[in-house]
Design a protein that fits this description.
There is one protein chain. The chain has helices at 5-26, 29-45, 56-75, 85-89, 97-111, 114-125, 130-137, 141-158, 172-177. The protein contains nine helices and no strands. 68% of the residues lie in helices and 0% in strands. It has 181 residues and is mainly alpha-helical. It comes from Nitrobacter vulgaris.
Length: 181
């Protein structure tokens, strides 16, 4: 399939969601940008394998997820700063409460198992249906529903959230935890 103007526009429209997903996976803005760039390069190089009429964002998210996993396997052999002590010396602490709350949320999100975090981000933050998220993750719809439910419960417990009604409609926690689909 040739790269048409409408296909190019649809790819470009997916970039913000791809970047958000990449950040949620990698926890690093620079790595996320690299992942998105590599995803777009691979998608354009393999545009002939895209099936017209299928879900382009799901195809792009699958490429990104596979790239992340490949990169993760490579990085496993590297020495890590697992407790984050060295990384803390390289950055300044946020001065506003919103930054602190977001860091707490980010830390709680990082404590979720990878499969639950992926499912929650795809369904809760990126707006994919359970069916599309299942295709991206290569598992059954029921598995995605279960992962999202377990992730929401664990994240709520980690953040000591009794109900999402206490948060405003634009709150990050509510956006990701969601109200169930």
């Amino acid at each position: 399939m040739p790269l048409t103007d409408s296909l190019r526009e649809e790819i470009l429209a997916s970039v913000p969601n791809l970047r958000a997903f990449a950040i949620s996976l990698s926890g690093n803005g620079d790595r996320a940008d690299d992942l998105v760039q590599e995803t777009l390069l691979r998608a354009l190089a393999n545009i002939d394998s895209f099936q017209p009429g299928s879900n382009l964002p799901a195809w792009l998210f699958t490429i990104l997820r596979n790239l992340f996993r490949s990169d993760y396997r490579k990085r496993r052999r590297e020495v890590e700063d697992s407790d984050g002590n060295y990384a803390k010396t390289l950055k300044s602490q946020p001065s506003q409460n919103a930054h602190l709350e977001f860091e707490e949320f980010r830390a709680a999100l990082d404590k979720l198992p990878q499969d639950q975090r992926e499912a929650l981000i795809l369904v809760g933050a990126s707006g994919f249906s359970y069916e599309d998220a299942a295709k991206i993750c290569g598992c059954a719809v029921g598995t995605i529903k279960s992962r999202v439910n377990r992730a929401r419960s664990k994240l709520s417990a980690l953040l000591y959230v009794e109900g999402t009604e206490d948060f405003g409609p634009d709150d990050t926690v509510r956006a990701v935890i969601g109200n169930g689909r």
